[in-house]
């Protein structure tokens, strides 16, 4: 373990101990780990063995896996409303189908807010990796999954499907429809697979 990780482990265990109101002596008595060892672990002065760590975590009710998660603030992403980027998947009947990304960065997952104008469709079937979950916000849409009967979705309905199944959707009504789509696809790979079919726009461009 690196010194940084040793420090992190010590801080996490100490904070959990203090939150439970235990002294080092209390924790030693309950866990069977020597008080001197606990003190050295909490100050990052020693590399604890897994037996000691397991005993301490079990006594403190703390998940041992949390001690070994790498610090990476890049894994946490906040997207403000005015920071969302948008893209036009295609045009249907002369109208743009606008999708606004609600995630950003090099995530292995992305989400979008899709607005479908009246009497428009998403074009040909799409095929890519991952899985998708659709949640209808307003209006009525018909989702087509290749080889399956069409699914008519109304507000509050959800639909899940593997992305290797060809998928497309249509708004056959005279009212606009909106839905959220969450995909475990890598967006950059999706963008590459749909090259020429979507037009990515910078935040504030629409």
UniProtKB/TrEMBL annotation:
Coiled coil ranges: none
Matching Pfam families: Cupin_2, HTH_3
Matching InterPro entries: Cro/C1-type_HTH, Cupin_2, Lambda_DNA-bd_dom_sf, RmlC-like_jellyroll, RmlC_Cupin_sf, TransReg_Diox_bact_type
Keywords for this protein: DNA-binding
Family annotation (PROSITE patterns): HTH_CROC1
Residue ranges of every copy of the HTH cro/C1-type domain listed in the record: 13-67
Gene Ontology molecular function: any one: DNA-binding transcription factor activity
Domain of life assignment: Bacteria
Keyword DNA-binding in annotation: yes
PANTHER family (alphabetical): HTH-TYPE TRANSCRIPTIONAL REGULATOR, METHYLPHOSPHONATE SYNTHASE
Protein name: Transcriptional regulator, XRE family with cupin sensor
């Amino acid at each position: 373990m690196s010194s940084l990780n040793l420090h992190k482990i010590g801080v996490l265990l100490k904070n959990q101990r203090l939150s439970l109101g235990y002294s080092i002596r209390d924790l030693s008595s309950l866990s069977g780990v020597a008080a001197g060892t606990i003190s050295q672990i909490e100050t990052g002065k020693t590399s604890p063995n897994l037996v000691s760590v397991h005993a301490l975590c079990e006594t403190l009710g703390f998940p041992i896996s949390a001690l070994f998660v790498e610090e990476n603030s890049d894994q946490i992403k906040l997207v403000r409303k005015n920071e969302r980027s948008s893209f036009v998947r295609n045009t249907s009947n002369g109208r743009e189908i606008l999708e606004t990304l609600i995630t950003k960065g090099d995530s292995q997952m992305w989400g979008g807010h899709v607005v479908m104008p009246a009497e428009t469709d998403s074009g040909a079937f799409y095929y890519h990796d991952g899985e998708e979950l659709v949640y209808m916000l307003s209006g009525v849409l018909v989702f087509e999954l290749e080889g399956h009967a069409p699914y008519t979705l109304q507000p509050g309905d959800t639909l899940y499907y593997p992305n290797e199944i060809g998928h497309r959707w249509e708004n056959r009504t005279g009212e606009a429809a909106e839905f959220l789509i969450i995909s475990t696809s890598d967006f950059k790979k999706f963008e590459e697979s749909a090259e020429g079919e979507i037009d990515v726009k910078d935040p504030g461009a629409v």
